[in-house]
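Lecture notes, continued. The same structure-token format from the folding unit now serves as the input rather than the output. Read the line below as a description of shape only.
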């Protein structure tokens, strides 16, 4: 399976919702992984949530729709 490598500080815990595709995060990366069950709450007991990143992608999708799509030149890594 191919995935993009990014710089993550050792000891980081990755927080996601419970989408099935995220189940292998620990196996693929070795990082700790915790989930938030959105059918119960949108915030974990320690205050963590995924709303910030979900909002970021929603804004990006709206902009891309207005542009009638995008190409690799418009997205810098």
């Amino acid at each position: 399976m191919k995935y993009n490598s990014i710089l993550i500080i050792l000891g980081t815990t990755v927080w996601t919702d419970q989408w099935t595709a995220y189940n292998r995060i620990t196996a693929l990366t070795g990082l700790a992984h915790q989930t938030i069950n959105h059918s119960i709450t949108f915030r974990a007991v320690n205050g963590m949530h995924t709303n910030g990143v979900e909002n970021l992608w929603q804004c990006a999708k709206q902009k891309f729709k207005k542009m009638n799509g995008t190409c690799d030149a418009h997205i810098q890594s």
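Point for the exam: The chain has one domain: 13-71.
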